[in-house]
Design goal:
Arc Repressor Mutant, subunit A; three-stranded antiparallel β-sheet; globular; alpha+beta; homodimer
Chain lengths: 149, 149
């Protein structure tokens, strides 16, 4: 017999799904308008900007950006054409490819980060106090524990 | 001066973004495998199944599914071709279109719901107790209050 969601679960689920559907478009919209980047483009550049030597293996970058390798390769190719990153054979493993943020890519992240963070604060954190943030962290960690099994 | 996220906000944000990126694919994957529906297809049919007379104006259905009208029209057209819904001129307002779930669409929702709910329970609610669910509901409501201004 099917175990349905109870009323409280159903109410929380509807809200979570709405956030999941609406948030990416809202993030994309500010970044496209102000930096001609999708959120995924920005996140890819931001992950490289925080890596040692601003370089990561493509497989590691795919994991950090919650992406498949084909999707990441497609995006990396466009970002490479725009001069924000470069791909090369990994010096330690000739079968692997690494991506490196260029100086122009670094400047792009530096120029784009304040507007993006302002949007995240405005859309997500403006009405959350420290205890809400701790609850959000705990609950998302539990959901990820299931999603990433 | 840019006000950055503090460490707790940053940690919660990374987790929320990962859920936002990964959850839709996980929901789609079960529904496509078991019912040849995307999550958006299913959600559209489910919203109609709960409406009076299993009928809604397309504008109301777009709002319920957090969708633009063009995106919904595209999906509705495919669902209509598969025999799950029908569109007609609204009897009260000739400029408006209504969508009605067909009997085949109703049977599709009835057949698909248990597997989908099982997936939602398994991926999202399995490790959340009643207090987590209440926290999730409260926090998502606050975020939606910002996103939907």
């Amino acid at each position: 017999m099917t175990e349905w969601l109870d009323d409280a679960q159903q109410a929380a689920w509807r809200k979570l799904i709405e956030v999941v559907e609406v948030l990416p478009g809202a993030l994309d919209s500010q970044l496209r308008r102000d930096a001609e980047l999708s959120h995924f483009d920005y996140f890819t550049l931001a992950m490289l900007s925080e890596a040692p030597g601003r370089t990561l293996r493509m497989t590691a970058l795919a994991e950090l950006t919650n992406s498949s390798l084909p999707r990441l390769s497609h995006v990396a190719s466009r970002l490479e054409q725009r001069g924000y990153l470069e791909r090369a054979q990994c010096p330690d493993d000739r079968r692997a490819t690494v991506a490196t943020l260029t100086e122009a890519g670094w400047q792009k992240v530096v120029a784009t980060a304040p507007g993006h963070v302002g949007t995240v604060r405005d859309l997500v954190f403006a009405d959350l106090d420290a205890s809400d943030v701790a609850d959000l962290d705990r609950i998302m960690a539990r959901v990820l524990g299931r999603l990433n099994r």
